[in-house]
Amino acid sequence: MTQTYEERGGATAREPGRHPLDNPAYAALTGPHAHLAERRGRVLRYPVDVSPWLALPDDPGPADWADLAALAGPGEVPLPGVALDVPDGWELTADIPGVQLVGVAVDAAHDPEAVRLTAADVPEMLDLVARTRPGPFLPRTVELGTYLGIRRGGALVAMAGERLHPPGWTEISAVCTDDAQRGQGLAGRLVRAVAAGIQERGETPFLHTGEGNVNAIRLYESLGFRLRRTTRFRTARVAQASSAARDASL
Fold this sequence. Notes:
alpha+beta; eight-stranded mixed β-sheet
């Protein structure tokens, strides 16, 4: 059976929920990304055009779930990547198994072909994401950290960047390559380049991906990432709201 990073002695044992990566969105929004946080009670979220991530505390009670519903608004709510049972009054709408990998042995290196992407590049970044579907990327996601891209013939064909930023850690996200450019190692090069910038700040890279995304996991492990824990990518909605919507459609 595969051991996690901590089971192999790669991290100091802590109380459940106390490691920044156990609740990374909350750690980020109460830490380096606090300037972006929108808050209601103990519930936090990023602006809706920056990231869909919301964050509950480690021990949410009924008031916190009520604040989550109010802060998120109607519709489906992306739940934090923490082990939480959905309380009464909520309906789970998606539950996808995932993995969290930490870059404890990444062979990071800057890439001479990688260019820094800025707000001016966002239209091309959104187009590439729409075609390759690496995960959520919104008009202001670029504000979360450094994004690097590779261009061919002037066109953006691959990119990767930084998303969640718990203290001491930075998540690598939006790793994608145009279908016509796959097989050239561009994704691996960009992950190593983003990781190089993270390491230069004295931080450690980490990332998330779906448990079934075998090719991506194989790539990340070849670069020096190691499994820290499994997780779940869940969405939910307030059950009363979904019932009301169904009744209104009748």
